[in-house]
What does this fold into?
Amino acid sequence: MRAARRRFSRFSAVGVIGAGLQLLLMSLLTKCFGLLSVIATPVAVEITLLHNFIWHERFTWSESRAKRSTQLVDRLWRFHAANGLISLGGNTILMYCLVERLKAPAMPAAIGAILLCSAANFLAADRWVYARRGQQCGRGEPI
It folds into this structure.
């Protein structure tokens, strides 16, 4: 239980840094480059996903570092499949609904979208991306 709390704290710390990066990129892309938020969001989220993966690999789940490059590539693929789908899909849909439809300001909407997606991202990373072999969802073993 202590390890899970430590991992969640580290995940949250990386997430806060990633959120700052995502918001900075959103601001640059929308204000400096004039992109619509619905276009800027997936670009900012993808860069943040790569940033977060590197930090999770080296800091959050450092005790289960990839031993081989194939393992690292497999984790990156799973991270993108899980956290990418949640973050890219969730943030883009929420930003469209909040900004384009409800006319909410882009930055508060982006903060809300990040917060809504973060819990699902932790569960996906902890239970699938970084789960030890035999403990991954769908492998016939309980988690």
Remarks:
- The chain has a mean pLDDT of 87.
- Residues 69-101 form the longest helix (33 residues).
- The chain has one domain: 2-129.
